[in-house]
Every structure is written in C-alpha cells, then in structure tokens.
Amino acid sequence: MTDSTRASARGAGKRRRLAAAAAAVLHRQGAERTTIADIAAAADVPVGNVYYYFKTKDELVQAALAEHAGNLAELTGELGKLPDPLRRLKALVEAWVAQRDVAARYGCPTGTLAVELDKRAEGGLDLEAGRVIRLLLDWVEHQFRDLGLPDPEDLALTFVGAYQGMSLLANALRDPEIMTRQGARLTRWLDSLDGGGTGARPAP
Amino acid sequence: MTDSTRASARGAGKRRRLAAAAAAVLHRQGAERTTIADIAAAADVPVGNVYYYFKTKDELVQAALAEHAGNLAELTGELGKLPDPLRRLKALVEAWVAQRDVAARYGCPTGTLAVELDKRAEGGLDLEAGRVIRLLLDWVEHQFRDLGLPDPEDLALTFVGAYQGMSLLANALRDPEIMTRQGARLTRWLDSLDGGGTGARPAP
DNA sequence: GTCTATACTAGGATAGAC
DNA sequence: GTCTATCCTAGTATAGAC
C-alpha cells in the first residue's frame, strides 16, 4: 500500500464520518439551523477541512440523503429475508414503532428533510428527499403486489402516508404513544387486507 | 372618533396585514428562509416599521400560527352548520382535496410549520404549531364521538394523520393527484366506519 | 405612529500556509 | 491532504429623525 492510498483510505473514512454526522445532525437540528461547524464537530473533523470533502453545504445535505437511502436499503434487505410479504410489511411497522421516541422528538428523518428541502429551491435539492421516499414507496408497493392486492400503488401511498402522518403528529405533540397506537392500527389494517380475500376493503 | 383611535385603527390594519402576510409567506418559503423584509414587502409595509408591531421575528411566526388557528376555526364553524357529523368530516376531506395544488407545492401550512418549529427550540415556539393541530384533532374527535364510534381519539389521530401524510407525500413528490386519490380513500373509510355499525372495522 | 440608516452577528465560503 | 485566518454576505434588530 502506497502513501497515497493510505491517505485516500483515511480521507474516505473522514468523508464517511462527515456523511453519517450530517445525517444525524440534520435530523436533530434541521437543515437550516445546522452549520458546517456543527457537522464537523459531530464528525470530529476540523471545520476548515470539511470543504476538502464537500465543496458546499448542499453537498453535505445530499450526502445525508444518500445515507438515509443506504439505511433504507439495509432495512429492506433485512426484511426481504422474511418469506411472506405481509410479514415483511408488519415487521416494517414494528421497526417504525421501535423508533417511536426518536420520531416523537425529531420526526421521520427523511420526511422532515423533505419538508425543509421543499422550501430550499435554490440548490435544486428540493426534490431529492422525495426520491428517497420514492424508494420506500416502491418497495412497499412491491409487497402489496406480491400479495395479489388491487391498486398496490395506492395501498403503498396509504401505508407510507400513514407512517409520515403518525410521525408528524407524534413529533408535533411530542407523544411517542401515538406511534404505538397508530402502529397497532396499521397492523390490523394489513391483516384485514390479507384476510379480506377480495381486497375490496375500503380502508384509507 | 379621536385621532388616536383612527391611528390605532390604521395600526391594527397594518398589524393584521402583517399577520396574514406572515402566514402566507411562511407557508411558501418556510420559517427559516423567510426574512422580515419578505413579510414586510408582502404586506406592503416598510421594513423598519414592522418592528413597531412585532418586536421579533418569533412574534411574527406566532401571529402566523394564530392566523392559521383562525382559518381553522372559520372552516370548522362552516362545517358545523351541516347537521350530520359524518357529512362534516366528508366535507372536510373535500376541502383538503380542493387545496390539492397548494398542498402539492407547499404542503399543509400548519404541518410544515410544525416540522420547522420543532427544530427551532430557542424561541420556545417548538410546541406552538402542535397546539393548532390539537385544535383540529379535538374537533375531529368530537365528530367521531357524536357518531357513537369507539376510540374517537384514535380515530381522530388516524384521520388527521392520514391528511398530514398525504400532504407530505403530495408535496415531496409534487403530485396533487395523491391528494385526490387518498382523499377518496379517506371518504370510503368514513363510510365503512359509519356503515359498519359495530365500528369494529380495523382500518388504520 | 412612520420610516431611514446603520450597528451587529452568524455563518458560508475561500486563500493560502503547512 | 490538513488546518488557520479571513473575507463577505445576509439578515435581525435598534437608534433616532421626522
């Protein structure tokens, strides 16, 4: 290994630390209230050095979104090991409910970022969070399709919409129990869809 | 009428214009990206004069929230004229769907503000948006209670959560049709609750 | 009560030494 | 590849003339 590859390896390490720190800090403080210095401190990287890895703050936001997309891919990868699509969706609800305290305090990482970036048209990042949400929607839609249910796209919107809605309410009211109770409702809804046979159940 | 009361009347007019402008501009640009100058321009009031009516930017945000609360009270007041609670809720869904283009572009005014204010702990406004959402929740819960359905509080959370979720998705994906389709689902859900008789329908 | 000019600060970004 | 010092802009808020 040459000096330069070792340097690159160290550099890549810092880059990754900065991306992970960006994801975490942006979630807690929001995109606008977070300064480069905040992210640098969280990643234990000197402030001035950040610009070597990310030329602008927007690039850091982009990196945070990639981080969220990666986390999502990891989660759906795990869930994909379950044989039954219905069990996969139920396990996803369980994962959401398990995060109830974080959701009540800071909301859904991607959802809140989507709201903030929408108001930030300049950088052209206003649609990027939507892309990450789209990844989740597509995966969920695939599960509903595998279950043989009609309108899998609408079902996915209902399902993910319910998650975003309960996260926002839990956050706005600072009440993690909202995640628990609405999560239980979502699970019962999934059961009713599968048990219903015809799939004609009119639930939202 | 004395000079001072006339002056007060003019003053109150400007104050009201500023509050209304704050509500509108904060919705479009977000709390962080909006400057005092933006609000002043929208209200057609000279920048420096703003501070006579609102000592800080936070007070303007507070005024915008009061504006949203007022709009909500007006809407529920109208809906209250309908004799049947079920019709009231359906009419509320219709009102939401009618705003689909605004929702797809800027999200729910109160919901997006709740997300932003959550990250803005300093001013102590972080829970204020939640209070406005609570007003809506209480009204909706009341309708479900009048329908004689069990767990009206949870039903209200599901109903309002569905609205917040569909607004966020419509906004993140810039697709007003999401409001239309999910609104139709919500309406069918309401019908199923009422028609179900037992109210044991497991929908989320 | 209305408006102008300006003080002050935070924070993004860059130059350039090492 | 790492870090310091600094420039520069934007935006809140105030002082004070009218």
Automatic annotation (TrEMBL), chains A, B:
Q: Name a Pfam family for this protein.
A: TetR_C_13
What range(s) does the HTH tetR-type domain occupy? Answer: 12-72
Residues of the DNA-binding region: 35-54
- Keywords in UniProt for this one? DNA-binding, Transcription, Transcription regulation
* PANTHER family, per the entry: HTH-TYPE TRANSCRIPTIONAL REGULATOR YJDC, TRANSCRIPTIONAL REGULATORY PROTEIN
What name has this protein been given in UniProt? TetR/AcrR family transcriptional regulator
Report the source organism.
Planomonospora corallina
